[in-house]
Design brief:
The structure holds three protein chains of three kinds.
Chain A (H helix, E strand, L loop, with lengths): L1 H16 L3 E6 L4 E4 L17 H4 L12 E7 L5 E8 L3 E8 L1 H84 L6 H30 L9 E4 H18 L3 E6 L6 E4 L1 H18 L4 E9 L2 E8 L6 H6 L18 H11 L5 E4 L5 E8 L21 E5 L3 H13 L3 E5 L2 H10 L4 E5 L7 H11 L5 E5 L4 H9 L4 E4 L4 H15 L1
Chain B lengths: L1 E9 L5 H10 L12 E8 L2 E8 L18 E7 L3 H5 L1 H12 L4 E6 L10 H9 L3 E4 L8 H12 L1
Parallel strand pairs in B: 1-3, 1-4, 4-5, 5-6
Antiparallel strand pairs in B: 2-3
Chain C lengths: L6 H29 L5 H20 L3 H16 L7 H17 L1
The chains are: A alpha/beta, B alpha/beta, C mainly alpha.
Chain lengths: 514, 158, 104
């Protein structure tokens, strides 16, 4: 009996500890027994004789034969309970115990876990969106680059279209000027000569602006080419002075040019690039100076040309000095017109010519721009710069060139100058012609069908034919030049060739032969 | 009076509790509180009393506890229209349901239709059509299609 | 070539300008050939020859940009050792073609 009472005691303890409640139903779900503490969980009306389907929500739909565990069911009291359905022979016991502690713990953990997982999902989604966005940006970038390229191409295209007629204007005015000069040796036409000179200078100025635009398209792509050749510096600086004097006169400021050399001063430099730089720098200086002076200095020492441009303009703040070389940048408050390209391009050209553009300035104290570039001096033998001045020597020329685009142009230009030109379009024909006819000079391409220019040179050496041959090639590779020279060519010209260069070399060759 | 047990099932955080609460008590809370175990509510559709078992969502660690499904006459499959994975997971969840209680009538709630981040297209919901389930774009927040969803299930149950 | 220009020379320039379309077409043909799996080094050499000519003639006709771009493409062609690695060449040739297009 003691044991029974102990057992009962333990059971009682357990019941209380687990807050155990129960009820039993028969097979028709009628309640046949129920603990009193069911009400603690909010289950009311669970009394003998009632139908469990009606008074206990979770019982609906269940049957009296199936064993079932329903963990963590929220009871009407709000407490979580564990429900166990334990079928016996003729009835079903439903045990209900508190699961609050476990549920609270689970709640915390599960909440954290789920929130974490949501966060991860969100992150993945965000990453995807970022990826998409960066892809789109990339596409946009490509489009922008394309647009910029098109704009640049358009600019180059338009500038190119301008350049051809402009050069034509300059050429024709030159002819008119010469005609006037020879017609009016007595000075009667000197007014007209001056006027024509003004037209010519303005055209050249316009040309230089067009060149700036053309060059802008090349800034990014290292395509600005500098072609050094013999140039009379004194003449170039005088030219620039004449070109810009009207601008400074128009603003009533002094334009002072101080040259440390006299005419003629022949050096090797790219005259048109140097002219472009000077016009850009002086143009800027004059544009921004409203009173005082603009001074241009140039001197040569040890084969270096040092150029300075000084103005008494408003000067540039330190802040703007940093931005001034950027393309299209213009000080906002100056109200001066222009493309904003000049300085950017000048800096690049000076760099390509082997120098560095230095700018120093202070607000209210004017601006100084200077650069120094290599300009190796030649013997001061006056060299005609204008092509019309090149001495004409009667000559019979053989042109060997398989590209008719080039051949026709060269033939035309040389014939217009009065030369007799024969054209062949392969090396074999060139060799035949040289074997059978007398020529004063040969202008020959390297890459030709049947026999290359090299082959022809080799054969000429073998056959002892000494007609001077200038090779033309689009290849600027030094080894190609060396090969041609080794095979006895008179000179090696890189395509595109300037017709004046051809004539100059030809004159030299003819002189040497004579 | 007719009485039917139905179960809300789906991945965690798709809005099973929100839909149930909107339907039963017409309330909505933005706060996410994960359901542990199951919560049982009752509501009426016309003269049918629904015992709604709002079952804890499936997550990567715990599957749906199929014991809760016993005795259900219909299932509301809930997924989140802003989370594709929850739509695809319906297929797995349905296998669990089918195994335990057979092919009972079901309807689908594509929940959270009020959010902009909607990611559902016809390809993803093709499975629902194959199964012949009525599918509703629902919002527990603004109540869109909530009533229609439960009414449709009741009429499917017959 | 900044001298005055006779009608004959202007006509030649015009002729050259109208030939740019064909040159562009040829380049794109080369590019298409390069895309194919059986592109050969011979084709690269042929393309290089074409670029060489173009570099010379375009410069003669004052298309400095085309000339420079062609020359660059030539250099890219020189670097080709294996037809599987000609991306640089393709880019350079594409650049020439697009320049040509702006004048067409």
């Amino acid at each position: 009996m003691v044991e029974t009472s102990l057992q009962q005691h333990i059971n009682q303890q357990l019941f209380e500890k687990l807050e155990l409640a129960y009820f039993c139903v028969d097979q028709s779900m009628q309640i046949i027994d129920a603990s009193e503490n069911l009400e603690n969980y909010g289950y009311t009306g669970v009394v003998v004789g009632a139908n469990a389907d009606d008074c206990v929500d979770f019982m609906f739909g269940l049957d009296a034969y199936t064993e079932l565990d329903l963990p963590m069911v929220e009871s009407p009291s709000g407490k979580k309970v564990s429900v166990s359905l334990l079928p016996r022979d003729s009835f079903l016991t439903v045990l209900i115990s508190s699961a609050s502690a476990e549920a609270d713990q689970r709640q915390l953990l599960q909440q954290k876990a789920n929130e974490n997982e949501l966060l991860v999902e969100q992150q993945i989604k965000l990453m995807k969106q970022l990826e998409n966005a960066s892809e789109m940006l990339e596409q946009k970038n490509v489009q922008l680059e394309e647009a910029s390229r098109l704009q640049t191409s358009f600019l180059s295209g338009v500038s190119h279209e301008f350049r051809t007629p402009l050069t034509s204007i300059i050429g024709y005015t030159n002819l008119v000027k010469q005609a006037l000069q020879s017609a009016g040796d007595d000075g009667s036409e000197s007014d007209k000569v001056q006027h024509i000179g003004a037209v010519q200078r303005s055209s050249k100025h316009l040309l230089s602006l067009v060149e700036n635009l053309l060059d802008h398209g090349k800034l990014d792509s290292d395509e600005i080419i500098v072609r050094p050749k013999e140039t009379d510096l004194a003449e170039l600086f005088n030219d620039v002075e004449l070109l810009l004097k009207p601008l400074s006169d128009g603003k009533h400021i002094d334009f002072i040019v101080e040259l440390g050399f006299e005419q003629p001063m022949i050096v090797v430099t790219d005259d048109s690039r140097l002219r472009q730089c000077l016009i850009n720098l002086l143009g800027n200086a004059i544009k921004f100076t409203d009173s005082g002076s603009v001074r241009l200095t140039a001197k040569l020492s040890d084969d270096f040309l040092k150029v300075g441009v000084f103005d008494t303009g408003p000067g540039i703040s330190q802040e703007n000095l940093a931005k001034i070389k950027l393309p299209f940048w213009q000080a906002a408050d100056t109200g001066k017109a222009g493309t904003g390209l000049g300085l950017t391009i000048t800096e690049r050209i000076v760099e390509l010519m082997g120098g560095e553009l230095e700018i120093s300035s202070e607000l209210g104290c004017g601006t100084q721009v200077s650069f120094e570039i290599p300009a190796p001096q030649l013997d001061a033998e006056p060299k005609p710069v204008e092509s019309q001045m090149l001495p004409f020597k009667q000559a019979k020329i053989l042109l060997a060139e398989d590209d008719y685009d080039i051949a026709d142009l060269i033939v035309m230009m040389l014939s217009e100058r009065g030369y007799e030109v024969s054209h062949v379009d392969n090396g074999e024909l060139a060799l035949n012609a040289l074997e059978n006819q007398e020529f004063d000079f040969v202008l020959m391409d390297i890459h030709m069908p049947i026999m290359t220019g090299y082959d022809v040179l080799r054969e000429l050496q073998v056959k002892g034919i000494k007609t001077p041959v200038a090779i033309m090639s689009a290849s600027a590779v030094e080894s190609d030049r060396a090969k041609a020279e080794q095979l006895g060519c008179f000179d090696y010209l890189i395509k595109p060739v300037e017709i004046d260069d051809v004539i100059r070399i030809m004159n030299l060759a003819i002189d040497q032969r004579a | 009076m007719l009485k039917k047990k139905i179960c809300m099932v789906g991945d965690f955080s798709v809005g099973k509790t929100s839909l149930t609460q909107k339907f039963v008590n017409n309330v909505f809370s933005e706060k996410y509180l994960t359901t542990i175990g199951v919560k049982i509510d009752t509501a009426f559709v016309n003269d049918t009393k629904l015992i709604v078992w709002d079952v804890a969502g499936r997550d990567s660690l715990s599957p749906i506890n199929a014991s809760y499904l016993v005795g259900a006459s219909g299932i509301v499959l809930v997924c989140d229209g802003t989370r594709q994975s929850t739509v695809l997971d319906i297929k797995d969840i349905w296998q669990v349901v089918k195994k335990r209680i057979g092919e009972v009538p079901a309807v689908v709630a594509l929940n959270k239709s009020d959010l902009e981040d909607w990611h559902i297209d016809a390809q993803q919901t093709a499975y629902f059509e194959e199964q012949g389930w009525q599918t509703f774009e629902t919002s527990a927040k603004d109540g869109q299609n909530v009533k229609a969803l439960f009414e449709a299930l009741v009429s499917e149950i017959g | 070539m900044t001298d005055h220009e006779s009608p004959q020379i202007l006509a030649l320039k015009e002729r050259y300008k109208s030939s740019l379309v064909d040159k562009m077409q040829s380049l794109s043909d080369y590019l298409i050939a390069m895309e194919s799996d059986d592109a050969t080094l011979d084709q690269v050499a042929e393309l290089r020859g074409f670029l060489h000519k173009l570099a010379g003639s375009s410069g003669m006709y004052d298309y400095d940009d085309i000339s420079v771009a062609s020359r660059k493409a030539m250099l890219a062609a020189d670097k080709v050792e294996n037809v599987a690695h000609i991306d640089e060449l393709k880019v350079a040739v594409g650049k020439v073609a697009s320049l040509l297009q702006t004048y067409c």
